[in-house]
Amino acid sequence: MSPVSGSALAAPGAERIFHETMLGLRDADPRPGYRRLREKAPVLLTRDGVLVLTRHADCAAALRHRLLGGRGGAPGLGAVALPDDERVLALRTVQDGMISADPSGHARLRRLVSSAFAGRHVEALRRSVAARVDARLRALARTPGADLMAGLALPLPVDVLADLLGVPETDRAELLPLVGEMNAAFRHDGVPADRARAAHAQAVLADRLGVLLAARRARPEDDLLSRLAASRADDALTADEAVGAALLLLGAGAEPTAHLLGNAVHALLAHPGQYALLRREPSLVPGAVEELLRYDAPVQVVARTVLEPFAFLGARLEPGQTVLALLGAADRDPDRYPEPDRLDVTRDPHPASAHLAFAAGRHCCLGAHLARLVLEVLLQRLVDGHPRCALAGPPVRDGGLALRGFARLPVTLAP
Asked: Which residue spans traverse the membrane (predicted)?
């Protein structure tokens, strides 16, 4: 099926299906809504002028289109309605960072930090990631019914990103709570008090990171903070840009990875036959990582902003309009994946870029390799050391709209 065929820019009831599906992301299964929307209006133009896409081919084309970018601010950041005196520098530096930069600015910022996520740098973290996973699994195993989110999924990505940045262990005591509070700025449904705390947390983190960056300028080490601090002629980051890049990595990297881990473990334990298969054949783990990313990724929706007028999938788009790629729907597209709603760790994996869990194009997730590594190590350690891992009670969905995941995931780990 071509990306254009079967388009329906308007269909009775389709917009209601779209809104109900989006509101249900926090606590309901979105798959029925995705299916209904894809069948009724795979290309939907809402009354507000938002173009909504649900098919894999259409979403992939949008994510890679040169006239669709991130300019205008990341979803959730620009909507933080705080008085001017509460709009701290940290929030502004994140808004001016990689997510919302225009194409030339984005390419410059991405080039300066991407080396830290190259294969060799990420692979060098495998041993430390494994050690951190082992320590947290041992702690969880001591308490049957322990919460996997609080005990592992939420703190682990913060520790791993802190390792990558080079944040000293002595400076990490308040890192996790500050990152958690800062991420309230990314929530569409956060109340003003949450947003004020997020702004304060960003200000505190910006101050801490600024001090560390200044120290790295004077005495560089082999870490990302040193690379951000180093001068690179015309490409050199300003102090605010360097702080903003570090904040962005912590804010945009920690919570999605946490929900990736939680979603993956939940999916496997909800399908014990699949978990048993990984125990019998641990060589399937790398492919299972890709299947779990496809099956229930934390980022279900990505927004792109129209940069110049152009026609796309039957719609005439103007600058400033929004295109929404429903990644969760795209990765359940039956034209792309046979039996897409079935979890199958033996599914023949497409090339790593085939599923859209990390988006695609110039704004694809910079930390994709690192997220894959953390999930792979966790799965290997679970199937090797805790073959009788099981859900210990009903999970509790996270209340945010920006990410799909769990607030609480009780598990029992047993050898």
From this structure: none
